[in-house]
Amino acid sequence: MMLLVDAGNTRVKWALADAGSALGAWRLHGAVLHAQLDEAAARWASAGVTRALVSNVAGPQLAGRIAALLPAGIEVEWFASSVERAGLRNGYRDPGRLGCDRFAAAIGARALAPRQNLIVATCGTATTVDAVSADGLFVGGMILPGLALMASSLASNTAQLPQVVPGAVPALFGDNTNDAILSGVLSAQAGAIERAVAGHGASSCIVSGGAAPTIAPALKVAHRVVDNIVLVGLQAATAWREGEARC
């Protein structure tokens, strides 16, 4: 049993995958806030985990907590961006500086939409919008504040604008301050994704992350919402490596 872990800035997402299972076909999966990590670990402990693949962008302190909570004696790999993995070449100027979650998400997106120019947008605390070419090159991408962070920055740095909780897609031109703010931050998020799709000539756009259900309805380009694209990418990377080992 393989444990897949995506430790982000706000939540830790995880899944348990049987060897050879289809992408996203997990025995169990979940997501917890950092403070609730013990709850997830309690479920890992009784699952018969033999290996773990962990993507962590939340810093060394959380990495230490995860390491301490993994089942004893298992094989653990800390996923890192590299020059090439799972058939995806890393076009970042310094490949090791690419966020490991972005590299994993690109691997997952390419596994779901092979041989296509595609955009993968992961919408969480930050929103990343990355381009992958049909021949398997991670071209590069964009990083912008996430939806909630954009809304919070307006409330924190202006005297009279309220804190808005992102929700249903409002009219393009809001007739009240809350809707005007929400329309603005949604338009910024959707506009970045749409610009990336147009600029890359993408035939496929995959949207993931906690804010994806809010942002996706605002998009004016064809897209597919995929839950937990980083975990999908970790699973795809594992399957690719196992296939190489059998050759």
Keywords, separated by commas or semicolons:
single chain; 247 residues; alpha/beta; Nucleotidyltransferase, domain 5; seven-stranded mixed β-sheet; five-stranded mixed β-sheet; 7 helices; 12 strands
Write a compact overview of the structure shown.
This protein has two domains: 78 residues, Nucleotidyltransferase, domain 5; 121 residues, Nucleotidyltransferase, domain 5 (2-Layer Sandwich), CATH 3.30.420.40. The protein contains seven helices and twelve strands. It is globular, with a radius of gyration of 19 Å.
Outline the secondary-structure elements.
Blueprint: E1 2-7, E2 11-17, E3 28-33, H1 37-45, E4 51-56, H2 60-69, E5 75-78, E6 84-85, E7 88-90, H3 100-112, E8 118-123, E9 126-132, E10 137-145, H4 147-157, H5 177-200, E11 204-208, H6 212-215, E12 224-225, H7 229-246
Parallel strand pairs: 1-4, 4-5, 7-10, 8-11, 11-12
Antiparallel strand pairs: 1-2, 2-3, 6-7, 8-9, 9-10
Descriptive overview:
Belongs to the type III pantothenate kinase family. Substrate binds at residues 92, 99-102, 177. Homodimer. By secondary structure, the chain is of the alpha/beta class. The protein folds into 2 domains: 2-79, Nucleotidyltransferase, domain 5 (2-Layer Sandwich), CATH 3.30.420; 114-234, 2-Layer Sandwich (Nucleotidyltransferase, domain 5), CATH 3.30.420. Helix content is 36%, strand content 26%. It is built from 7 helices and 12 strands. The strands form 2 sheets. A 7-stranded mixed beta sheet has the order 6-7-10-9-8-11-12, sandwiched between helices. Helix 2 (60-69) links the parallel strand 4 and strand 5. The longest helix is centred in the last third of the chain and has 24 residues, at 177-200. The radius of gyration is 19 Å and the shape is globular. The protein starts with a strand and ends with a helix.
